[in-house]
Amino acid sequence: RLHGCLSEQDVLEVCDDYDRERNEYFFDRHSEAFGFIMLYVRHGHLRFVPHMCELSFYNELIYWGLEGSHLDYCCQRRLDDRMAEARPYRAPEEPPAEPRGAARRAPAAEGGRWLERMRRTFEEPTSSLAAQVLATVSILFVIVSMVVLCASTLPEWRAPENRSVEEQSRYTAESGGEPSGIIEAICIGWFTAECIVRFIVSKNKCEFVRRPLNIIDLLAITPYYISVLMTVFTGENSQLQRAGVTLRVLRMMRIFWVIKLARHFIGLQTLGLTLKRCYREMVMLLVFICVAMAIFSALSQLLENGLDLGTKNKDYASIPAACWWVIISMTTVGYGDMCPITVPGRILGGICVVSGIVLLALPITFIYHSFVQCYHELKFRSARYGRSLSAEFLN
C-alpha cells in the first residue's frame, strides 16, 4: 500500500508518521512483535514473541494483514487455547445508545445499567452485597435439599420394601403432603424462580441455554416436575408397574443440585475449567489405559486360563473379565476379588501395576499446571469483583 502512494497525504493515511528527509515511515505498533513478523517474511516461520500475551500478538498479526493460520502449529494451538480461555471472561459490551436526543438515551442507559446489575447479582456472587446475600440463600437451599434427600433414604423415612405396587404408588403420591415433600417443593420453587430470572436478564438466550451450569440447573429441576406430572396422571394405576421405580429414579436425580455449588465456589469452578481445558490430556490418559488394558487383559487370560499350567483360574475365563482386574491393578486399588495364582500371572500382575503408575503419572503434570493456572485466573477475577464490593460497602 505504501508503494502505491502518490503523495505524502496518501502515505499518512497508511502509516502514523512520515519523515521526508530520512524517508522513514513510523507505525505506532509493538516493535518487538514487528521483528518476529519480519523474521516470518525472511524465513517463513511465524512464532509468538516470548513473554507477550498471545491475544496482543494476534492483534498485531491482524494489523499487518496476517492470520492465525500463518503461525506454526504449536503456536496455533496456543492461540486457540488462549482464545478459548478468554472468551468466557470477555467483558460484556455496552448497549448502543439511542441516536436521537439525550432524553431518550438516558432511560435506555438506565435500563441497561439495571439489567447489567441484575445480571451480575445472579451470575457473580462477589460482585455486590446483594449478590452475596443471594448466593448465601441459594447455598442454604442446596444444603437443605441435600439433607432432605439423604434423610429420605433412611429406613425410618423410606417406604417398606414389602409394599405392593399400588401402596408404593399411593405412598409416592401422598409424599408431597409430608414435611419432606413440602421442603422439597419450596427448594424447587426457589431454584425455578432463580433460573427464570437469570434467563430473563441474560443478554444471549441461546448462549444461556448452552452453558454447562444452566444445563445442570435444568437437569436438577426438570425431574421434580416430571415426577409430579407422572404422579398426577398415573395415580394408583397398577398397570404401570414401573412407575414407582421411575419416580424414585427421578427423585434421586436431585443429587445434581450439589453441582449448583460450583456457581458459588472457586474450587468447583476451577475443577470444571481444568477439565474443559485439559480434554486432550484426559483423552490421552484414557487411550493409555485402554491400550494397556487390552494388552494385559489378553495376556492375563492366556496365562491364567488359556494355557494348561496345572491350574486354571476361573476368574480369568474371558478377556472382558480380565479387564476388570487390569483396571483395578493399574489404578492400584486392588480389591482382591480376583488375583493371579500362577507364577507367570503374578509376574505379569507386577508389570501391570508398575505400568499403571507410570502411565497415569505422565499426563498428570499437564493437568496439574492447568489446574493451578485456572485457579489463579478465577481467584483474580473474584478479587476484581471483591474490590467493587468493597467500594460499594464504603459508599
UniProtKB/TrEMBL annotation:
Residue spans crossing the bilayer: 129-154, 181-201, 213-235, 255-275, 282-303, 315-335, 347-371
Residue span of region Disordered: 87-110
Family annotation (InterPro entries): Ion_trans_dom, K_chnl_volt-dep_Kv, K_chnl_volt-dep_Kv5/Kv9, SKP1/BTB/POZ_sf, T1-type_BTB, VG_K_chnl, Volt_channel_dom_sf
Gene Ontology cellular component list: voltage-gated potassium channel complex
Keyword field: Cell membrane, Ion channel, Ion transport, Membrane, Potassium, Potassium channel, Potassium transport, Transmembrane, Transmembrane helix, Transport, Voltage-gated channel
Annotated GO MF terms: delayed rectifier potassium channel activity
Cellular location(s): Cell membrane
Main location: membrane
Family matches, as Pfam families: BTB_2 (PF02214), Ion_trans (PF00520)
GO biological process: action potential; protein homooligomerization
Highest taxon listed in the record's lineage: Eukaryota
Coiled coil: none
Residue span(s) of domain Ion transport: 132-377
Domain Potassium channel tetramerisation-type BTB as annotated: residue spans: 7-74
PANTHER family: POTASSIUM VOLTAGE-GATED CHANNEL SUBFAMILY G MEMBER 3 (PTHR11537:SF91), VOLTAGE-GATED POTASSIUM CHANNEL (PTHR11537)
Name of the protein: KCNG3 protein
Gene designation: Kcng3
